[in-house]
Amino acid sequence: MTSRPGLRPSALPTTVAWSPAMAAYDFGPGHPMAPARLELTARLADALGLFDLPHVSLREPDTASDAELQRVHSADYIAAVRRAGEDPTASDPERGLGTEDDPAFAGMHEASARLAGASLLCAEVLLSGASVRAVNFGGGLHHASRERASGFCIYNDAALAVQRLLDGGVGKVAYIDVDAHHGDGTQSIFWDDPRVLTISLHESGLTLFPGTGFANETGGPRAPGTAVNVALPAGTGDAGWLRAFHAVVPQLVGAFEPEVIVSQHGCDSHANDPLTNLNLSVDGQREAATAVAGLAGRYCGNRWIATGGGGYDITGVVPRTWSHLIGIVAQNPVPVGTRVPEEWLEYVREKFGRNAPERMGDDVDIWWRSWEVGYDPADPVDRSIIATRKEVFPLHGLDPWFD
User: Fold this and answer.
1) Is the peptide bond before 210 cis (omega within 30 degrees of 0)?
2) Which residues sit opposite 229 in a β-bridge?
3) Which of 31, 158, 181, 242 is the most buried (most CB within 10 A)?
4) Which residues are catalytic?
5) Are 265 and 140 within 8 A, CB to CB?
6) How many CB atoms lie within 10 A of CB 28?
7) CA-to-CA distance for 252 and 199, rounded, in angstroms?
8) What is the distance, to the nearest Å, from the Cα of residue 49 to the centroid of all Cα atoms in its chain?
9) CB 161 within 8 A of CB 305
10) Residue 375 in contact with residue 382, Cβ under 8 Å?
């Protein structure tokens, strides 16, 4: 029997942005960004009962308009995306279109704009008060910059959500990115905006695309200290990653005092991911989402938008991690010992010829050593942590050694 999450009678109104049409974001056979990631996540979350909770609204997003996209992207770039979708044989490498990472496909603009529209929907329901929390697991396309596609990302939906919140009267937004890759596009868009704190924990650019995201990247002249980067060494596992998160993120979020958190939950940090070199578990990724939820509750009146991101083990990792994310956003976390519903496992066997994990967790110990215990200069993770703390903490009135 499948264990289903228990309803909390005081649960906060929550929106999940989802439509099967979002799977049209498809770079073609063999590309790592397989649209099945989204379908499998929706099927699993539904099988777990997360879409049936009375305080959860499942809403289909519209495609973002050109005017909405122009809040973070240039008109020329949007026009180039349209052209690429109309003639997929053409390429525009200067804008990152028609490349190996971002091959053009028919309907590229419309498919990309729908994912962007999903995160804009999340922002709208928070601004209107219809929901306190929202999730777009099809979003998190954090490499797209104002003028360029990059790293499987065409339009930066997370940046659009942040900008819509600002335009709607929110004074400060904290953006927290836990993808294995640096959130370079979002950082670049808000590089000189003191209203936005971007925090990215990722595998070091010395070993992973996009080769950026070092501790000394701290924001523009009008916004010093608002870009925060923790570049972790390849091989970092749950204990080191969670130590780094808790040694940097809560302190800075508390000092910044945001009104809303927008987070990106790429799950390509998992040990089984084929494109990265970190060593996290589903349990560790779930713990990261739980930590972000705690920060939203402590500092933002629970106002939180969560997005997906990278993640390329499409049957073994992505659906479980993002179903956990949906459950946590909806204040109905799924225990890691929960059995994966048999109907979902059978669907994976029939469609993909694979045996997916039978439990919602990886059955690992995610204990980590808190920063207060002390700093070990021989430990490469600790060296990454202290590099970030020394660069950024003083800019927020924090002590890099003791806060």
Assistant:
1) yes
2) 200
3) 158
4) 143
5) yes
6) 11
7) 9
8) 23
9) yes
10) yes
